[in-house]
Write a structure and sequence with these properties.
The chain contains 14 helices and 25 strands. With about 550 residues, it is α+β, with helices and mostly antiparallel strands. Strands 18, 19, 20, 21, 22, 23, 24 and 25 form an eight-stranded mixed sheet that branches. Strand 21 (about 455-470) and strand 22 (about 475-480) form a beta hairpin. Helix 3 (about 145-165) runs parallel beside helix 8, helix 4 packs antiparallel against helix 8 (about 290-330) and helix 11 packs across helix 12 (about 425-445). The protein is elongated. The termini are far apart. The model is unreliable at about 100-115 and about 135-140 (pLDDT under 50).
């Protein structure tokens, strides 16, 4: 049996430890062969022992938290295999054999001597070329001929996958290939980390028995999630000829209840990123895997490499499509900079911005004398006037990072401080108000309308609930609360071509010298006097 090393990972630190003696102790005491001064590790925690047959075992030596191998708590000495993960408290050690092939041959010998099927754990990089470079056998084509034939198959598969435009087409191509080449497989599943957050989702599944297809759709209970998660997390390929005789899967509910006897899973990996798992299983033990199982696993892994590229393209295309829809929707409310930021941080779960309490400044800008103006105009002319005016005013809102809430007739409702927090939201709101009044004055000087137009602007600051509110058919991104109600009421005391602000907003300004007291006012529905400030802006010459 080959010597082993242990790869220790604690936080961002990774260390390789060589096991250079037949008995190797691990614990928190400095005299242990492997000194682990970490939480959860006992003084003398575990011991590795090399047996007379040249195999390695691990046993717990009375630790407080116990010792786990591949997430299973051990109660007695357990044989170790290449790729096993030993857990001691919060520390994990990956078992690495200097020559994994030696361990594999040993497993095959044991399996042949006891008529017991075996389980293979293989690093996918070791399998990448193995299917193509198979050894020739008596009565079979030469190694060169077989290599050429297999390369041709891979090229054909790659062409078909490249032409697949949807995830359904990708899976259809994979299913045809797997069921054609692997007679022992009954069911197949494609699981993908769609959100990129480490959570596998079943996106499609198939079976040889068409009558059972409907039972697989949308139901992942039949899949061994522990196998898939191990494959995904550790980027290894797993193949078990008889899961019922392997203690690694003894506690797996889906395996025991659903009757899974043989299973095979490989990661979908593109360079260093794993995007999903290709999983297959059967109700019968695959005893032939004792002889040619590694070859089938190598083929399955090679196919998964091709599938990974197609899945990556699908994920990218789907992400771009989603971002475009989100961008078009958000551009109605936010400045381009805020839109880009929201998309970059993935701020739209389920396509919505969940309502949340925020500190904001709310702005109402109302066209003075709109009723009298509209009496003289046709509906079409009114719409044209408002469209042109809103287009100009909104540029000032967006210039200071504001968010459009809605248009209320001839009124613009906007706020600052959400969805992204802005500590200077009061300064931004008053600067936008000044910009709107100055812009309107310039528009009037250039005969924007056949008579001068005026705005009244009111600003208040405080807490509000901001987010998507509405039904499944219609959703509005809006701000709600007493802060908004007061700002709407304050507009009534604002002189034309001016802006009024509340005392709360006044106290938040970094420079308040432009504002002067306007006195205390009482507003409908508000049971207190409200101190209001106003300012007259310097007009452009």
């Amino acid at each position: 049996m080959t010597e082993i090393t242990l790869r220790l990972k604690q936080g961002d630190t990774e260390t390789t430890v060589v096991v250079n003696q037949d008995e190797f102790t691990i614990g928190r005491l400095p005299e242990c062969d492997l000194y682990l001064p970490f939480g959860g590790v006992s003084r003398r925690h575990a011991r590795l022992v090399k047996t007379g047959q040249g195999m390695w075992t691990i046993e717990d030596v009375g630790s407080k938290n116990g010792t786990q191998v591949n997430q299973t708590l051990i109660s007695h000495a357990q044989e170790l295999h290449h790729g096993d993960i030993i857990w001691l408290g919060n520390v994990n050690l990956v078992v690495l054999f200097a020559n994994p092939g030696t361990e594999l041959m040993h497993q095959q010998t044991v399996a042949a001597g006891t008529s017991e099927p075996r389980t293979i754990f293989r690093n996918v990089k070791q399998l990448q070329q193995q299917w193509i470079e198979a050894d020739s056998k008596d009565g079979e084509p030469s190694n060169k001929d077989k290599t050429i034939a297999r390369l041709k198959d891979l090229v054909d598969i790659a062409k078909n996958l490249c032409a697949a435009a949807s995830i359904e087409e990708i899976f259809s191509q994979v299913q045809q290939v797997v069921f054609r080449y692997l007679d022992s497989i009954d069911r197949l599943a494609l699981l993908i980390d769609v959100g990129g957050c480490g959570q596998l989702e079943l996106v499609n599944a198939g079976t040889r028995d068409i009558s059972q297809q409907k039972y697989l759709a949308g139901d992942s209970n039949w899949i061994s999630h522990s196998i898939c998660q191990k494959v995904f997390a550790e980027k290894i390929a797993i193949q078990s000829a008889d899961t019922h005789k392997d203690e690694r899967f003894s506690g797996e509910h889906s395996i025991l209840v659903k009757g899974i006897r043989s299973a095979m899973a490989v990661p979908l990996w593109d360079e260093n990123k794993v995007v999903g798992v290709l999983y297959a299983d059967a109700h019968l033990s695959s005893y032939h895997w004792a002889d040619d199982g590694e070859e089938e696993l190598s083929f399955f892994s090679a196919l998964a490499n091709l599938v990974a590229s197609s899945v990556q393209r699908w994920l990218l295309a789907d992400k771009l499509k989603t971002e475009e829809v989100i961008r078009h929707r958000l551009e109605r409310y936010h400045s381009p900079g805020v839109v880009q930021q929201l998309i970059a941080i993935g701020g739209l779960p389920d396509g919505r911005l969940a309502p949340a309490e925020s500190e904001i400044s709310i702005l109402f800008a109302d066209l003075v004398g709109f009723t009298a103006i509209s009496e003289k105009l046709t509906p079409t002319a009114i719409a044209q006037l408002l469209n042109n005016l809103f287009e100009e005013m909104l540029q000032e809102v967006f210039a200071y990072g504001g968010t459009l809430d809605k248009y209320i007739g001839d009124c613009i409702m906007a706020f600052f401080g959400a969805p992204e927090p802005q500590a200077d939201h009061a300064d931004r709101a008053t600067a936008a108000a000044k910009g709107m009044l100055a812009r309107l004055e310039r528009l009037n000087a250039n005969n924007f309308w056949h008579e001068p137009l005026q705005l009244r602007i009111a600003i208040n600051s405080g807490k509000a609930v901001v987010g998507d509110v509405g039904s499944s058919q219609r959703v509005d991104y809006t701000a709600l609360g007493a802060t908004i109600n007061l700002a709407a009421r304050m507009e009534a005391v604002c002189p034309p071509s001016e802006c009024v602000i509340s005392e709360v907003t006044y106290n938040l300004l970094s420079q308040s010298s432009d504002f002067q007291e306007m006195g205390h006012h009482r507003f409908k529905g508000i049971d207190r006097l409200v101190k209001v400030y106003q300012t007259k802006y310097v007009h452009d010459s």
